[in-house]
Design brief:
With 199 residues, the protein is mostly beta strands. It is built from no helices and 12 strands. The strands form 2 sheets. It has a 5-stranded mixed barrel. A 5-stranded mixed barrel has the order 8-9-10-12-11. Strand 1 and strand 2 form a beta hairpin.
């Protein structure tokens, strides 16, 4: 986790704010409900600065914006992103403390962005839930297959955009898969899936 230049909590009237926090974890039960776990800095009078975590609960009233100030959903947030957040001063005494998020704004990356992922539209041929693998076949060429590795970060959505587990997918379904640009030279090639959307 990158902890350089993390912001600390500042009070803005009845709202607390942290600029330049790091997202450590994202959880969502649907597109706009869940939480993010963030890291931020805590400066002490002794001159020492430590890092602490805060869970920000997200609901339908939370405003989530990308770096261009356009609305996005909770499912678009990723671990490692830098964000500016505003939240309620009412925090639980849990570890980590929890508060309700009012706004989450993604900051532009300080380094050049990574190349966007590749997108493949294909039909599911076979699902290996035990090994977290998915094999697809091209709509136009039944001999063109691809293997996708499913990780803990892979987002799988049904036709309505709601998260579903890998086991809910079925052979024959048409899916759009955002995946790594890197593919193995094996036959069929293997790539890591970032997002799978049933269409």
């Amino acid at each position: 986790m990158a902890t350089d230049n993390l912001g600390s909590i500042v009070s803005l009237g009845n709202v607390l704010r942290i600029d330049n926090a790091v997202i450590d974890e994202v959880f969502f039960s649907n597109n706009n409900t869940g939480y993010i776990l963030i890291s931020y800095s805590v400066p002490w009078q002794s001159g020492i600065t430590t890092t602490d975590q805060l869970q920000l609960n997200v609901n339908n009233n939370t405003v989530i914006l990308n770096s261009f100030r356009l609305p996005i959903c909770l499912c678009d947030l990723r671990e490692g992103m830098r964000v500016d957040v505003t939240f309620s001063p009412r925090m639980t005494r849990s570890i980590p403390p929890q508060s309700n998020a009012f706004s989450i704004t993604v900051k532009r990356p300080s380094r050049p962005p990574v190349a966007p992922p590749s997108v493949t539209t294909a039909r599911i041929l076979w699902i290996d839930a035990n090994n977290n693998r998915l094999i697809t076949v091209s709509q136009n060429n039944i001999n063109r297959q691809m293997v996708f590795v499913i990780t803990n970060s892979t987002i799988i959505l049904n036709r309505n955009g709601f998260p579903i587990p890998l086991r809910a997918l079925r052979p024959g379904q048409l899916v759009q898969i955002s995946h790594s640009n890197f593919q193995t030279a094996s036959i069929p090639p293997i790539a890591t899936a970032f997002r799978i959307q049933v269409i």
